[in-house]
Amino acid sequence: MGFFEKLKGGLEKTRQQLSTRTADVIRLFTKLDDAVFEELEEVLIMSDVGFETSEDIIERLRQKAREDKIRDGEALRGALCEIIGDIMGNSVPLEVKSPAVILVIGVNGTGKTTSAGKLAAYYKEQGKSVILAAADTFRAAAIDQLDIWATRAGVDIIKQSEGSDPASVVYDAIGAAKSRKKDILICDTAGRLHNKKNLMDELAKINKVIGREFPEAQKEVLLVLDATTGQNALSQAKSFAGAADISGIILTKLDGTAKGGIVIAISKEQNIPVRFVGVGERIDDLQPFSAEDYVKALFE
Amino acid sequence: MAFDSLSEKLQSAFKKLRGKGKVTEADVREGMREIKLALLEADVNFKVVKDFIEKATMRALGAEVLESLTPGQQIIKIVNEELTVLMGGAGAKINISPKPPTVIMMAGLQGAGKTTTAAKLGGLLKKQGKRPLLVPCDVYRPAAVQQLEIVGERLGVPVFKAESTKPVEISKSALLHADKNGNDIVILDTAGRLHIDEELMEELRSIKKNIDVTETLLVIDAMTGQDAVNAAKSFNDSIVIDGVILTKLDGDARGGAALSVRAVTGKPIKFVGTGEKLEDIEPFHPERMASRILGMGDVLSLIEKAQDAFDLKKAEELEKKLRKQQFDLNDFLEQLEQMKNMGPIESILGMLPGINQKALSGAKIDEKKLVRTGAIIKSMTKKERENPSIINSSRKRRIALGSGTQVQDINALLKQFEQMKAMFKQFGGMKKGGRGKMRFPFA
Prior knowledge:
The complex is a heterodimer. By secondary structure, chain A is an alpha/beta fold. Chain A has helices at residues 3-12, 18-28, 34-46, 51-67, 73-88, 112-125, 142-153, 166-179, 197-213, 232-243, 262-270, 291-299, and strands spanning 100-105, 130-135, 156-158, 184-189, 218-226, 248-252, 274-278, 286-288. In chain A, strands 3-2-4-1-5-6-7-8 form an eight-stranded mixed sheet, with helices on both faces. A seven-stranded mixed sheet of chain B has the order 2-3-1-4-5-6-7, with helices on both faces. Chain B is flat and about 75 Å long. Residues 1-7, 295-300, 352-365 and 428-443 of chain B have low confidence and may be disordered.
């Protein structure tokens, strides 16, 4: 099943959700008046796009509707998708050369360990050799959790004991990746709230170790965002970008009723592309992101 | 810290109103618009915001405001009152079953923090003299059982060894185990699940059907956005919850989800998770939270925190020393350590009324300074700490080297210490005049 089908499948479970409401708004309007725009803005806010960005999108939509003399729902939907698509930019799949290091970061409970495990399976499926680094040495049993994912994906894992220095785990893992000639090293890290300075410093240190010890590798820093997160995700993206240059976002838990609309605001403000989406609990439920499909699924 | 930015917004919205002698209807609507934006930015659900604004505007437009001499104040009062109502009455407690054991079931979406919170709750109840038993019913997430076992062991709370892989069977046999071993509280940690996952929701219902669950607690992440209402409503409709625990409140999320969840379920928020340490769980105080939203500060929480962190006995000893003018660098260091116990300075300042939240970003530097000051004192010998006057320039160089600082830093610290001592001298004199206890020489 492709990304779009999965997403739509998730949406179908809750018919009263956003997509249907938008569809109703668009399908049922007889006259393109303020009420229609207001309703659409409401729908955007309810999917966590945020007030400012929603207002901006609707403003652009009004203008476009005037310019293009839009009268029917189908054209209005098209215009809306186009505007959001513009904000999100073209989604190009993440190209990973060998050797590469992927650092997986984020706040607590967004699904970093699960995403790291799924990423390993994803790249292995593509014929790459992958090695995992269990650099979440803080949360109880996080190492065991990643270990199980490593077994499931059939890849190597580098780990130390709980409580050890995460930067040293990454250091070891880089050595192992080099000597075993692995294509991709994926580092899981501990969840940290972005307003805790010492934890962000720790992350910056891990990031520095990668740059110093493995300069020849392509470095990708992926921020894992939970689709149920609201406006705080903006603050997360900003703070994490300060500690490590974020190169992309993994949007998880899109199989629920949350739409993760905040990624639109993040795209607009910080221009960080969404690279993957998590749409379920199975190992293959991590898929490359497609802005077009995402927007379509939002308003279909 | 949650809600800070919201109170900042509301403060600026009302600044305009405060200066005015008389407000017009347009003024009220303008102020309410700011509140609406602030609440939306804080992730309060759109519909909840709409209702709230409508109610508050209606009241604010009433005669009591427009004719009042201080309309701005009146509006703040109204918004505060309505917010408090929305967040529920006084702090709610865990229901304890008259016939033990009391069974507490944790439920929630993935990643909300159920396992950690289950353990924290167990630790809290143990401190209150109960005998809790933690039960791992999350049979899906890899290593979830190990996680509970590890945190249980850290807290000294027993964790049930499950033989079955079926949550219903596990909870049944855990209950028998609790009976045999005299555990009066049984806490079931369940797997994270989506509220639209019928199969997994049925599993929770079936646990409740098979055993007597006293208290079902929904664990919600304070960072949750608009979808909080959907999740909370579905869980409540499907398994009927008794209360909510709000986690990750130590982040900077404004925590509007608290308002939303409360509004759609009508169930009280009972506890909040405030940190990564296993003792970081606190009862929820709706009235304090509402005051904080409006920038009136959370003085009550601050006082409680200070009481916890400051050792009373040590404080009395210090007081004696101060009176006798025997305060030395050892005491200074001890005070520093106690301040650190209270948590990050920003979080303490954030509780004080009238503090500009933006200025707090600068407070982080001071915390570093605390650490450095501690390092300097720790690099001194016992004699030097007791009698700082013997510290000459060669001693200063050694201390600077030992603490990784500069001689200027040592000078600055010693000067500060002398000033403080002089200040205490004055206090000491006043003390005889019958002043109350002095507990915060550094606050």
